[in-house]
Amino acid sequence: MSSDTPQNEQHGKTWEKAERKFTHKPASEYYDPCQDFADRSLKCMKRNNFDREMCGDYFQAYRDCKKNWLNQKKFPGNTQK
């Protein structure tokens, strides 16, 4: 079976269109600004033998960050904390 079948050609065109769209979007649309807080939470958990109580501040910082980020995405002009 040839690799240039109509189905493969269509798939290639679809991918090119999606790839173009993905590579030309601003980085902020694919970047989670709260990832640093998530990483710190996981590091805290590992350091403290996965005792959630020891890492409450890290979890709260992540929740606050995520809440603010999602609010900004819903209401772009909103700069509430």
From TrEMBL:
The entry's keywords: Disulfide bond, Mitochondrion
Cellular component annotations (GO), alphabetically ordered: mitochondrial intermembrane space
Compartment(s) where it occurs, according to its Swiss-Prot or TrEMBL record: Mitochondrion intermembrane space
GO biological process, one term: mitochondrial respiratory chain complex assembly
Species of provenance: Penicillium ucsense
Protein name: Cytochrome c oxidase-assembly factor cox23, mitochondrial
Its biological purpose: Required for the assembly of cytochrome c oxidase.
Cross-referenced InterPro entries: COX23, Cys_alpha_HP_mot_SF
